[in-house]
Amino acid sequence: MSEYDKVRPGKLVLKGEKQKGKKRKHKHKKQEDVPKIDQDAIEHGNWWKATKFDDLNGAVAIEFGKHTYVRALDNGLFTLGAPHDEGDGPAPEEILTAVPINERQLALKSGYNKYLRVEKDGKVTGRSDAIGAMEQWEPVFQEGKLALQGSNECFLSLDDDDNVVADDKKASEKNMVQIRSQTTKEVNPMKDVPVEEQGSLAQIEVNYIKKFQKFQDKRMRINPNDKKELDKAKVDGTLHETLLDRRSKMKADRYCK
């Protein structure tokens, strides 16, 4: 299995008894101050369960049942691996790479650097060097469950010999899987901030000018007054009004007469 050499695979807070005397004030500690622990991920070697399409990027493992994962074989076929102990993650041969293609579909690459596809007989193989129509998969999330649909519009499952196939037109309980990831979840602090309000105050003013200026002579008109008033306006919560006032003095804003 030398090919797999390339695969890159706080203290627990418990609710205590009621405190007496001076320590009673701790009873009112906010619930959100207690760190949330993903017990399910801990039981799977810190591989957390994907619950939406955006979670599927990078190293993943497909779990059937509990602690058993799809395993790549050196002949290009896939089977169900041996059960793992609680607390252990998938083995290197059970780690795939998810490659998003669009907002609904992705490709899956094995540790042998081959893409997964469904053959005419329904068997899942990993022998493709590139992503084509046959190498596209669609994760279907519904009511907390997940099924993986292949290019033949059939869902991933196991046959009687635990070989991985995709030959069911309708998804039932045997088609339900968990796709687990170890990729760090990134939190974007600017996710809920409008594009126009990202950057320095000077850049924010330029952003709004570009958005609202009429540009009749194709020249950008920026108010030359001291930008310190923008700092004060941001503190006072009147930034938008101040920006509008600065644009109106230049008589170039489409909403100012």
Task: Describe, in plain words, how this protein is organized in 3D.
The structure is a single chain. The protein has helices spanning 39-43, 201-212, 228-236, 239-249; strands spanning 48-49, 58-64, 68-72, 78-80, 96-100, 106-109, 115-118, 124-128, 138-142, 145-149, 155-158, 164-168, 178-181. Strand 2 (58-64) and strand 3 (68-72) form a beta hairpin. The radius of gyration is 27 Å and the shape is elongated. The longest helix has 12 residues, at 201-212. By secondary structure, it is of the alpha+beta class. It has two domains: 2-24 and 33-181, Trefoil (Acidic Fibroblast Growth Factor, subunit A) (Trefoil); 195-249, no CATH class. Strands 1, 2, 3, 4, 5, 6 and 13 form a seven-stranded antiparallel β-sheet that branches. The model is unreliable at 8-14 (pLDDT under 50).
What features would you highlight for this structure?
257 residues, alpha+beta, Trefoil (Acidic Fibroblast Growth Factor, subunit A), two-stranded antiparallel sheet, elongated
Give a brief outline of the structure.
With 257 residues, this protein is of the alpha+beta class. Helix content is 14%, strand content 23%. The chain has two domains: 172 residues, Trefoil (Acidic Fibroblast Growth Factor, subunit A) (Trefoil), CATH 2.80.10.50; 55 residues, no CATH class.
